[in-house]
Amino acid sequence: MHNAAMTVGRILTTDACMAEGAAWLATAEPRFAQALDLCGPPPLRRREDGFEALMSAIVSQQVSVASARAIKARLETAGLTDPAMIAAASDDDLRANGLSRQKARYVRALAEAGIDFDALRTAPEPVIVETLTAVPGIGRWTAEIYAMFSLGRADVFAPNDLALQEAVRVLFDLPERPREKPLRTMAEAWSPWRTVAAGLLWHYYHHIKSREGIV
């Protein structure tokens, strides 16, 4: 268990954890201090982990929040929310409840992947990413978001996220949005609180967009 604790690092469990991380970031990087002054510490956004969390992520891809919610409600009503039921359902059943042909394939692949979700709770981040991205329809961004929000890892970043890229562009006064690779490198300086850095950047992003009347 000691080895697992060493590889897992800090788990975010309360808003106080987020405030602690935000204070550390503000000391380490003046621009985070600016964002913190403007927006306050980001809230903790923990979600359930496990099969349904990842299925929800697949359902939500490339559709509006309202559409995703409606599809999830239909799947729930049809009892299609656990791996056994999905593996037993036909493609027609899945598509009749709002999934595209591609998403039906992805959800079935997830149901048949046999992921040990309990083991992921104590797995190092590279193992989480490798395990999840082996499933068709789950990319690195989804795996990183799962590690952040479902597993509460304090030191994960998702540099392929457009909102994070845009927030960094504005906050750090960059000429253009940083791409995934340079932003991943940039975020190394924010360890061991990269998840909190992401939370603060998302918080800042919503602030600047609401000020522009976009969100």
Task: Enumerate how many helices there are, as a single number.
Answer: 14
Give the number of DSSP strands: 0
- The CATH architecture of the largest domain is Orthogonal Bundle
Name the helicity range.
55-70%
Task: Please tell me about this protein's structure.
- The structure is a single chain.
- The protein has 215 residues and is mostly helical.
- The protein contains 14 helices and no strands.
- The radius of gyration is 18 Å and the shape is globular.
- Mean pLDDT is 94; it is low at 1-5.
Structure summarized in a few sentences:
The chain has 14 helices and no strands.
Salient structural properties:
single chain, 215 residues, mainly alpha, Endonuclease Iii, domain 2, Endonuclease III, domain 1, 0% strand, disordered N terminus
In terms of topology, how is this protein built?
Elements: H1 2-8, H2 15-28, H3 30-39, H4 51-60, H5 65-77, H6 83-88, H7 91-96, H8 101-112, H9 117-120, H10 125-133, H11 140-150, H12 162-171, H13 180-187, H14 194-211
